[in-house]
Amino acid sequence: MNKIIFSLASVLAFSLHGQAQLTLSHDQCLEMAITASEDVRIAENETQQSKLDWEVARTNRLPRLSGSANGFYMAPNMGMNGMDFVMHGAWSAGLTLTQPIWTGGKITAGIDLAKIGRDAREQQSAVTKLDVITDADNAYWTYIALIEKQKMLQSMISFVEEAYQQVEASVSAGMSTRADQLRLEAKRSDVSYQMEKVINGLDMCRMGLCRIIGVDFDTEIVPVDTTIQVKNPMDLLGLDGGVSLRPEYQLLQSQISASEKQIKLTRADYLPSIALSGMYNWYGNMKMKGVASDGMGGYVPYTSKINDNFGLVALSVSIPLINWGEGFKKVKQKKIALENSQLELEKNIKLMDLQLRNAQMNLTSAYSMIQTAERGEEEATEALRVMQDRFDVGMCTVTDLLEAQSQWHSARSNTIEARTQYKIYETEYLRAAGLLNP
């Protein structure tokens, strides 16, 4: 048996050799998971993009200033009344300032729609963070559960080794049979096999937790929470929660608001628009070539250069006249989309309410399972103690002792699993009730 313990210790020492050690609390686990998550960072980038979209939309209310410059070369020259209009290297430049006055509400609707998009992205980012928290929470408590099972198996190894030494001495004294010794050897092999499985599972769970919190896979994680503590579910069920607090609910509300703004945006495309424009232009190097009378019956050539500038203020009104019902049909399409968004909200409210009810039932049921498992563990512990005392004085067989020990192992496993499942259901309930903060 000492060889087996040494072998298991060697496996643990080898698996942990060269590993960095990280002491990790539950809160630290969740914080690190959010920081390390690529999905969270993508969602935050998308939120930043939507904020920029909103800021861009707001600039549509401001005047637009544009400039232009042109060069001209025209051939052949244009003749007018015996003169040539020459544009060889002529140029023009100008500035235009345009201020929208009325756009049928299109600019306002666009700004509102961009703001709704920004809020929706923030809500979607919150949903992503909740997904990460749920995964990290599950991995953290599962890791602690496996550590608990490892401790349980270590105590079983000590128990079986002690019983084996007792039987070995009894066999030497002729008070026990070789069959009793073989039964303990078989039990010892079975416990060693289970320990190997737990060690492998614990290492896989550790690496999964390392991935979630963003540390190297070789990092040794030492959880602060050495046991899984639970609280009465009534303390949680009494909190003021509801599906309306969930970011998923707010996201659906944003979809309805966006559909309403889409109707206004579409309608604005078919309403009159008014804009005020101011322009100022410069032009030069334009020439007029011709001949003029010299006053003595002859003609002399002359060239006149044109360089000038001018300003202009214009009020433009655009009125759609005939679109063959296109605007009406597009608005109707958007109204149908709004109705679908409202139906989606109604459907998902029912689903989220069902999730909340299921989460409440799972939480209370899990707590009841813990109480049942703990009673069973207490009874199995007492039965094992009694059986050990009887075995020590030769009043029961090895088979009876191993049966009692197996019942304790099963009862202890049930307690660990019930507590782990409760913590998972606890997180699910807080999320379903809108009480899990991202």
Q: Could you explain the architecture of this structure?
A:
The protein has 9 helices and 8 strands. The protein is an alpha+beta fold and 438 residues long. Strands 2, 3, 4, 5, 7 and 8 form a 6-stranded antiparallel sheet that branches. A two-stranded parallel ribbon has the order 1-6. A hairpin with a 2-residue loop joins strand 3 and strand 4 (83-86).
Global shape: elongated
Counted beta strands: 8
Mean pLDDT: 89
Alpha-carbon distance between the termini?
Answer: 49 Å
The low-confidence runs, each spanning 5 or more residues with pLDDT under 50, are 1-17
The biggest beta sheet reads: 6 strands, antiparallel
Fraction of residues in helix = 55-70%
List the secondary-structure elements in sequence, H or E: HEHHEEEEHHEHHEEHH
Coarse structural class: alpha+beta
What gyration radius follows from the Cα positions, in whole Å?
41 Å
Helices, by number, come to: 9
The amount of beta strand, in percent, is 15-25%
Which terms would index this structure?
438 residues; alpha+beta; 6-stranded antiparallel β-sheet; two-stranded parallel sheet; 9 helices; 8 strands; elongated; disordered N terminus
Give the arrangement of secondary structure elements.
Elements: H1 2-16, E1 21-24, H2 26-36, H3 38-58, E2 64-73, E3 78-80, E4 83-86, E5 88-102, H4 106-173, H5 178-213, E6 220-223, H6 233-237, H7 247-268, E7 273-293, E8 299-318, H8 326-392, H9 398-432
Parallel strand pairs: 1-6
Antiparallel strand pairs: 2-5, 3-4, 4-7, 5-7, 7-8
